[in-house]
Amino acid sequence: MLLAEDLLLLLTDDASGRPTLDGTRLDLVLAGAVVLDLAVAGRVDVSGPGEPVRPGRLVVRAPSPTGDAVLDEALRRVAARRPAKPEAVLPGLAKQLRPTLLTRLTERGILRAAEGRVLGIFPTRAWPAADSSHEDGVRRGLHEVLVVGRSPAPREAALISLLDAAGQVPKVLAGSGLDRRELRRRARDIAAGEFAGAAVRRAIEAVTAATMAAISAGAVAASGGS
């Protein structure tokens, strides 16, 4: 499972099948997760001092396919453009990402497509849980890290960092026994910790910051247009 798939499951209500986060933020967080999966796979990185491109740009380190269609399409898009800051890359990677992930999860029997109508006229679609066992396991792992205090695996640190960037840690771990402020504090400690190699750590920091920046820019644009 991709980080983006885990995030989408955590941020979709099992019963209603609707996202618990607004679409703009959700799409940007999912795009950030795809970038982190590529970083963990050694395909992309964030440039540092002394490189041919300016520091802080998302660059392709290895263009070879990963074998996953979602990651390979994202890798192709990153390679096709000039190196740019991650926050400039995320909106492009977000295009059609959520529908693709929903289709994959439905085909695996994890979600199911539910058709409906609003006021008996306007068609709607939702994706309630069909098999929540994988999501339950992911949530248990997050509980062990953030509530019990187990050291996170790099993948868990990346997941927590992205959830924190979207402000969703307290919602995902509702009923944990810890208040919202303490959960956020622990999540930010994890996000700032040393739980991965230098390259992945650098990517987690950059992508988390980029996701927050992109979300903020989207919120400002939306408020300006209203």
UniProtKB/TrEMBL annotation:
Membrane disposition: Peripheral membrane protein
Compartmental location: Golgi apparatus membrane
GO cellular component: cytoplasm; endomembrane system
Xref: InterPro entries: GPP34-like (IPR008628), GPP34-like_sf (IPR038261)
Main location: Golgi
Keyword Membrane: yes
A single GO molecular function term of this UniProt record: phosphatidylinositol-4-phosphate binding
Keywords for the protein's UniProt record, in alphabetical order: Golgi apparatus, Lipid-binding, Membrane
Protein name in the entry: GPP34 family phosphoprotein
